[in-house]
Amino acid sequence: MNQFKLAVIQDKGHANPKEGLSAYITGIKEAATLGAEMVLLPELHNTLYFCQVESMDCFSLAETIPGPTTEALSALARELNVVIVASVFEKRAPGLYHNTAVVLDRNGEMAGTYRKMHIPDDPGFYEKYYFSPGDLGFNPIETAVGKIGVLVCWDQWFPEAARLQALAGAEILVYPTAIGWITEEHDQTIRQRQQSAWVTIQRAHAIANGIPVAVCNRYGFEPSYAENAPKGKGIDFWGTSFVCGPQGEMLAEAPESERRILLATLDKQQTELVRHGWPYLRDRRIDAYEALLLRYRDRG
């Protein structure tokens, strides 16, 4: 399949996980009627972004894989003949949880999973409390539409992750995401600079690796889960989901503050043409990169 149509569903989080899953099932059906052959959902799409606080109660939101979400989306993938990239708060074992992306092939089979490798711990994004770092590595997942390099949110800031997926044969990089501004970040100049950096770094991954990138973020304000939190405290998720081509060219882009189903047609032959002209993989100096394995290169 040299060409396929990708849909990115930008929507809100939901307080009730069943309602959240139902809303995204509706979105997937809508995308399929528009001709989508692959559908990408945001990070932790069934729920509100509970990582705003550290609370043992939130572990009740986790589920096994296979489990309710994967079973429902597996049946839907088979019914609609589409590939679905979903996101699950995975309960792997008692006391062991992951932030996991699941890829369901269009025959309904689970094509593979990816566990988020880089786990943030910042104000409003306390993910280290909930998620163990991924242990499945950076391996593309083979599907009916091609090899998908799945990465999740905080992973999107690390060029090493994108490069390793590309080196393993990924034909597209996809990023289920939940990113926004905490209410304490009210300076509009700083907000716009952060958002611009987020778009730029991911377009750079497309350029540096010569493959398309698709990013699916949620949008809208979500109040803090914390008890007695001041009114108005929470996160403004900035939406702006997008799809870009192998030279960073924008193919589709969503606004900041509304639901949107983005559609883009991706052409694998374009990747080959771009890599002929910009042969980064050919010219990499793999004999000189050993320092990349260091945390920091001290001098002295």
What structural class should be given to the helix and strand makeup?
Answer: alpha+beta
Cα-atom Rg, whole angstroms? Answer: 19 Å
Unreliable residue runs: none
The amount of beta strand, in percent, is: 25-35%
CATH superfamily: Carbon-nitrogen hydrolase
Q: Per the principal axes of the C-alpha atoms, what is the gross shape?
A: globular
Give the C-level CATH assignment: Alpha Beta
Q: CATH architecture, please?
A: 4-Layer Sandwich
Q: Oligomer, anyone?
A: single chain
Q: CATH fold name, please?
A: Nitrilase/N-carbamoyl-D-aminoacid amidohydrolase
Mean pLDDT: 95
Measured as a percent range, the helix fraction is: 25-40%
- Characterize the biggest β-sheet: 6 strands, mixed
Number of domains: 1
Q: Between the first and last Cα atoms, what is the distance in angstroms?
A: 53 Å
In sequence order, what are the helices and strands, one letter per element? Answer: EHEHEEEEEEEHEEHEEEEEEHH
- Number of distinct beta strands: 17
How would you write the strand order of the largest sheet?
A: 5-4-3-2-1-17
**What's the tally of helices?**
6
Summed up:
The protein is an alpha+beta fold and 300 residues long.
SSE topology sketch:
Elements: E1 3-10, H1 17-33, E2 38-40, H2 68-80, E3 83-93, E4 96-104, E5 110-115, E6 121-122, E7 125-126, E8 141-143, E9 146-150, H3 159-167, E10 172-176, E11 180-182, H4 188-209, E12 213-216, E13 219-223, E14 234-238, E15 242-244, E16 250-253, E17 260-267, H5 268-277, H6 280-283
Parallel strand pairs: 1-2, 2-3, 9-10, 10-12
Antiparallel strand pairs: 1-17, 3-4, 4-5, 6-7, 8-9, 11-14, 12-15, 13-14, 15-16
Helix pairs in contact: 1-2, 3-4
